[in-house]
Design a protein that fits this description.
The protein is mainly beta. The chain is built from no helices and eleven strands. The protein is about 0% helix and about 50% strand.
Length: about 120
């Protein structure tokens, strides 16, 4: 059974930092792109950061320079270091994995991040 389990969410003041982690199990994810999405209340889910199977990274413009995605293929984990957090970063953050570039095959259950002003 494939599972993606996020951890590390919580409440933080604006300007603070959080580190989200995602533990994947059930298969080897080294050939998958690993992503972090987020969904704020009343908004669509959006891609925040991606780590391709080849090691390239992508960031949404809104988080460039503040967030860093990293993965450890040996441990089947992906992390998101979030610095200089803003109230607009408040959302449920989801870990996701896909074999093909335009597909998501697996989702985590989500973890809440709340940034207070």
């Amino acid at each position: 059974q494939v599972q993606l389990v996020e951890s590390g969410g919580g409440l933080v003041q604006a300007g603070g930092s959080l580190r989200l982690s995602c533990a994947a199990s059930g298969r080897t994810f080294s050939f998958y792109h690993m992503d972090w999405f987020r969904q704020a209340p009343g908004k669509e889910r959006e891609l925040v950061a991606r780590s391709s199977s080849g090691g390239r990274t992508y960031y949404a413009d809104s988080v460039k320079g503040r967030f860093t995605i990293s993965r450890d293929n040996a441990k089947n984990t992906v992390s998101l270091q979030m610095n200089s957090l803003k109230p607009e970063d408040t959302a449920v953050y989801y870990c996701a994995a896909g074999r093909l570039l335009e597909t998501i095959d697996y989702w985590g259950q989500g973890t809440q991040v709340t940034v207070s002003s």
